[in-house]
């Protein structure tokens, strides 16, 4: 049961389907996890009590097992992206929504307005992205549903970056740059370090290993007044 959940949740290729050829390996991993990592607290301490874990929140249980697999293979294996099986990619062409918030009109963005969640920083960021010649196009991540998954222990969360920009380097290459402004301003869980780690160490490496959606990079900007200089410095380093 947990084997099937792992394959469904983490070992499904959007082109080749579910990787059932891994069933035997995953079965051995699940058995080892079940025998060594499950601690019985309370009850009568019987082996039958251990079986209840199979029925407890299978999504989080599978996430915990997969995190162990991922950590064990970080140094030896290439990180692989797990795409949504039914919707492997998104596009700004599908962005549509109504808002009562302030908006900033755009030229370089495929979406005609930037929605302002605060009084000034979205406007400053959009104005800067519009003015920088290195920025080819950009979008505010609003109604776009672009999310980066991360784990807090065994609990899954989604991090929503602020902007995505396509920037052109000095050698003419175009890079997809994820831009986080003001220290993860939408962080309601207090997981700033986790969001940064999963974005830089896992999501970027997995996305770049696909060789399908271009090259990706990331910048965190905590000083909005210095955003132009920070972006130029980052682009020049790519």
Structure write-up:
Helix content is 35%, strand content 20%. It is an alpha+beta fold. The strands form four sheets. The chain has a four-stranded mixed β-sheet with strand order 5-8-9-10. The chain is elongated and about 65 Å long. The model has no long low-confidence stretch (mean pLDDT 83).
Number of helices: 7
Overall, the morphology is elongated
Determine the structural class based on helices, strands and strand pairing.
Answer: alpha+beta
Amino-to-carboxy terminus distance: 45 Å
Q: Tell me the fraction of residues in β-strands, as a range.
A: 15-25%
Radius of gyration: 21 Å
Low-pLDDT segments: none
Helix share, percent: 25-40%
Q: Write the H/E string, N to C.
A: HEEHHHEEHEEEEEHEH
Average residue-wise pLDDT: 83
Strand order of the largest sheet: 5-8-9-10
Quantity of strands, as a count: 10
The description of the largest β-sheet is: 4 strands, mixed
Give a quick rundown of the structure.
This protein is of the alpha+beta class and 238 residues long. It has seven helices and ten strands.
